Amino acid sequence: MSFESTPVSIVKCATYDEDLVYQKVKEAVDLLGGMKAFVAPGQKVLLKPNLLSGRPPEKCVTTHPLVVKAVALLVREAGATVLIGDSPQIESAKKAAHKCGIGKVADDLGIDIVEFEPVTVPNPDGKMFKNFTIGKILTEVDRVINIPKLKTHGLTTLTLAVKNMFGCVPGMRKAEWHLKTYQEGGDHFAKMLLDLYTFINPALNIIDGIMAMEGMGPGFGPSRHLGLLIAGTDGVAVDRVVAEVVNISPERVSTLHIAATEEYGRHSMEEIALLGETLEDVRVADFKPPAGQDPFMKLPKAMKKFLKTSFTNRPVILQEVCEVCKFCLKACPMKCISEENEIMNIDKENCIRCLCCMEACPHGAIELKPGGLLKAYQRIRKIF
């Protein structure tokens, strides 16, 4: 079957200088036809940045406020009304936004930051998931513009356009999805993300890759300068291009792997028309991916439980860093985190490695460490 190519633009942007960011975001959108190709005068448009938690912008946890500001100005210039919204796992959108600088952008431009009050809606066209509980505002706006941060993720390898739509699920309901899809097994979490992205169907995706996060994202990995903005209408295609830029195989990115097997979006580079910079000019050969994903997902449960405990990376609480805020306890869908005598502990037997605890921890007190057999294997490999 033949397809027309879907366009994805790549634009270099060296720094977070306000005028430069506006110019380069506009350039990335203009390569796709300009903002007026995506929004119309009088429409209500929701900007959906990554507001994982309230961390300073230099930590690269959230979409940079100047990228959000540039998109907001372009939408306004097209005659539409702008809103900003997301649903962090623990704190409110307004609180997180003001901590990471997006709140000041909203205040300066007179833009409302909206909380995602839950509403359950049918998804009859979903390939696997036929309804979702999402923020009510998403059913009331005319367009959604998705503004993810380019980051790694211990569960999905990369968190980009498709994964950023998971923020449309209100608060702690994200943990319920982790539990539900884990119980179903296989690649159900990635399938859910793709069904959710397809249902919300953002009009435009603009990825902030000026400063990215590599290594063990999405909350406390090291920052990495890439100097890029990547945009397109098809989130799968945009994510595929990013994977190519950072030299990570799409097989390692669960959403891209499922997109290719289940036919979500344009998942092949042959179906994507690159605009702006060429891959040869922007590719990063030494971008650090997160630690390996669960290789035992398809094994029988009894065997999988043993191997997951002994032969995979698992979250461990760094007691010397932990502030006993209990955010991890609240976020855990398996309820396998407990507190005793001001010490937090994770039950490694029941942990499903969803990494909700790592995402929720505001202090960087949780990191992935290898199980016993994996540690022994790594030592032997290092020797030989």
Compile the SSE list and pairings.
Blueprint: E1 6-12, H1 18-30, E2 44-49, H2 65-77, E3 81-85, H3 93-100, H4 102-109, E4 112-114, E5 118-122, E6 131-135, E7 143-147, E8 149-153, E9 157-159, H5 161-164, H6 173-184, H7 188-200, E10 204-213, E11 223-232, H8 235-245, H9 254-262, E12 272-276, H10 279-282, H11 301-311, E13 313-317, H12 327-331, E14 337-340, E15 343-346, H13 356-360, E16 366-370, H14 372-383
Parallel strand pairs: 1-12, 2-3, 2-7, 3-4, 7-10, 8-10
Antiparallel strand pairs: 1-11, 5-6, 8-9, 10-11, 13-16, 14-15
Characterise the protein shown here.
The protein is of the alpha/beta class and 384 residues long. It has two domains: 6-282, 3-Layer(aba) Sandwich (Rossmann fold), CATH 3.40.50; 301-383, Alpha-Beta Plaits, CATH 3.30.70. 33% of the residues lie in helices and 23% in strands. Strand 5 (118-122) and strand 6 (131-135) form a beta hairpin. Helix 1 (18-30) packs across helix 2 (65-77) and helix 2 (65-77) runs parallel beside helix 4.
